[in-house]
Amino acid sequence: MIKITVIAVGRLKEKYLTDACREYLKRLGAFAKTEVIEINEYKASDSPAPSEIENIKAREGEQILSKIPQGAYVIPMCIEGVGLSSKEISKKLET
Known about the structure:
This protein is of the alpha+beta class. 43% of the residues lie in helices and 17% in strands. A two-stranded parallel sheet has the order 1-2. The model has no long low-confidence stretch (mean pLDDT 90).
């Protein structure tokens, strides 16, 4: 069985989002072993300098890299990325 590890920056705070995530993971559990790892989100000041933003990205990036299982196939996801449907994600996982 395939294992999927989701490494997330920060934590979900809204109940409707945690409920939706729990339901999706439950459904996915029929096809894959899943694990969610939440890492600390670093807060920026109200008007961060570009160097502060880069420092935060580097610190969070180090945490993410330390949690990636050895030999894992990595699919990075971010707000600027291309959105995929469940079917499209499924096809990516198959390949």
